[in-house]
Design a protein that fits this description.
There is one protein chain. The chain has helices at residues 2-7, 9-18, 24-37, 50-53, 96-103, 146-153, 170-176, 210-220, 264-279, 295-310, 329-340, 343-355, 361-382, 407-411, 418-423, 451-464; strands at 44-47, 65-69, 107-112, 132-133, 136-140, 159-164, 179-182, 202-207, 250-254, 283-287, 388-392, 427-435, 438-445, 479-480, 483-484. The protein is of the alpha/beta class and 522 residues long. It has a single domain (2-293, 388-501), classed as Alpha-Beta Complex (Amidase signature (AS) enzymes). It is globular, with a radius of gyration of 21 Å. Residues 481-522 have low confidence and may be disordered.
């Protein structure tokens, strides 16, 4: 029964609950036990007890466990953003996303690890240490929503929340072989979400399938008057349109996403995916997004500028860690920020302050804003020729922990996801196969507020394939009664280097608050 519960997904678990095959308390206990068994992944930063995590009994998803990214304020829980700066902050209120999850009946079992203040593409920029990829623990799980993606992949929870600023849901979803959806900017309230870049941050969900993503998004979407960026559109039942067929659907294939820089193995998987969709009746049309090559530069200029403004409040006086023994107020600011922020956060604050400084605003910030507008216009033109766009989520599969030290190379991991964020469009990553024994993702992109079309295309593709059902080769395995589940055929062996040993000794992360291995500090 334990194996059935952990592999059923949100929709399957709901069915089991309605049929009386399990109870919310039993399901919660099973997932909590699995979280403790797999604490070495460092996916979670704390466990939530029953009293703090219970949802409304009349909710549509009553009894379904969820993991929240450690960026959503949650009443009575530490909300650290994986930063020393907020190490002791206990939120007095729930964010809008946590409120809605409670109202839907979901039970929060834990909070997920992440890149500090959501700044990163690997999950390595965390005060709790790097989150490991469940498919190969020597590799990263992506970022910044690393723990959320890893938790769903490892079947620690059927649903997890995350945030996507430039790909922070879609990229880790691709690396971990799960589904992750970023809705239209403003579709989900940002109230109570600790800001990185307010003009880009958007909450979304992770799940094993598009069907489960539809359930999760239905629970959290909707207008919120407390959020000035919230779109005044009603919530929807995104599950209602899942059976929309692929036949007749025009799927755009952006030629710039396939021109160069894409791993050959990932490219081959995408070609197979296009073939599968064609067999189902979809029409593949080539579209062009010529300004996409400017997206990474424009994105990092704009988001760093917003980050430098948003994080200015953490000065040791109003918010966050306060340095001891500072001689004066200037020293207090400097020491508090030096001690509280990690290297990547400092880098982005400095870059943001530079591009907004006198004499450079026109040269950088305003040009980036023009590029953003042009990219949005090119997407609008492309959608006149197609219904949705499909392409790679990431240029490669997950890389080794510690492999990329050059910040620019790390930023280029977002090359296919940031154009969507600049345009404010909905997009999701779905598993499309394995390259070099690691999962790869295909990204679906839709016009604004067309999440139903996006989810339907993904669901219909998943009816043609079984990549989303694959389970990582974790120890301990998923148990069913007294034995292992029959998932051996779906398990590629861990990627090895050289003589056959995983090479991550020097990169072993410190333990999370859930346990874990290793030691020391980041």
């Amino acid at each position: 029964m334990n194996g059935e519960i952990t592999t059923a997904g949100a929709a399957g678990l709901l069915q089991m609950l309605r049929e009386g095959k399990t109870t919310p308390a039993d399901a919660r206990a099973v997932f909590a036990e699995r979280a403790r068994e797999l604490s070495r992944l460092n996916a979670l930063v704390c466990e939530i007890n029953d009293a703090d995590g219970c949802g409304a009994e009349d909710g549509a998803l009553f009894g379904v466990p969820v993991v929240h990214k450690d960026i959503f304020c949650q009443r009575g829980q530490k909300t650290t953003c994986a930063s020393k700066m907020l190490a002791n902050f206990v939120s007095p209120y729930d964010s809008a996303v946590v409120e809605k999850c409670r109202a839907a009946g979901m039970h929060c079992i834990a909070r997920a690890n992440m890149d500090e203040f959501a700044m990163g593409s690997s999950g390595e920029n965390s005060a709790f240490g790097a989150c490991k990829n469940p498919w190969d623990e020597a590799r990263v799980s992506g970022g910044s929503s690393s723990g959320s993606a890893a938790a769903v992949a490892a079947r620690i929870a059927p649903l997890a929340t995350g945030t996507d600023t430039g790909g922070s849901i879609r990229q880790p979803a691709a690396f971990c072989g799960v589904c992750g959806i970023k809705p239209t900017y403003g579709r989900v309230s940002r109230w109570g979400l600790v800001a990185f870049a307010s003009g880009f941050d958007q909450a979304g969900v992770f799940a094993a399938s598009a069907e489960d993503c539809a359930l999760g998004l239905s629970a959290i979407a909707g207008f919120d008057e407390r959020d000035s960026t919230s779109l005044d559109v009603p919530g929807e039942d995104f599950s209602a349109g899942l059976e929309m067929p692929l036949r007749g659907l025009r799927i755009g294939k952006p030629k710039e996403f396939f021109d160069g820089g894409l791993d050959d193995g990932v490219a081959a998987l995408l070609e197979d995916a296009f073939s599968e969709m064609q067999k189902a009746g979809a029409k593949i049309v080539e579209v062009s997004l010529p300004s996409a090559r400017y997206a990474v530069a424009a994105y990092y200029i704009l988001t760093c500028a917003e980050a430098s403004s948003n994080l200015a409040r953490y000065d040791g006086v109003r918010y966050g860690l306060r340095a001891e023994n500072a001689e004066d107020i200037a020293a207090l600011y400097e020491q508090s920020r030096a001690e509280g922020f990690g290297a990547e956060v400092k880098r982005r604050i400095l870059a943001g302050a530079f591009v907004l400084s006198y004499g450079y605003r026109d040269a950088y910030y305003r040009r980036a804003m023009r590029a953003r507008k042009r990219i949005a216009e090119e997407f609008a033109r492309a959608f006149r020729e197609c219904d949705i766009i499909a392409g790679p989520t990431t240029p490669t599969t997950a890389f080794a922990i510690g492999e990329i030290s050059d910040p620019v190379q790390m930023y280029l991991q977002d090359i296919y996801t940031v154009p969507v964020s600049l345009a404010g469009l909905p997009a999701m990553s779905v598993p499309c196969g394995f390259a070099k024994k690691m999962p790869a993702g295909m990204q679906f992109i839709a016009p604004a507020l067309e999440e139903k079309k996006l989810l339907a295309a993904a669901h219909q593709y998943q009816k043609q394939t079984d990549w989303h059902t694959r389970v990582p080769p974790l120890t301990p395995p998923i148990k069913d009664g007294g034995g292992e589940t029959n998932n051996k055929k779906n398990i590629p062996p861990p990627v090895k280097d050289g003589g056959g040993t995983v090479n991550n000794k020097k990169n072993t992360p410190p333990p999370s608050l859930m346990g874990g291995d290793g030691g020391g500090k980041q």
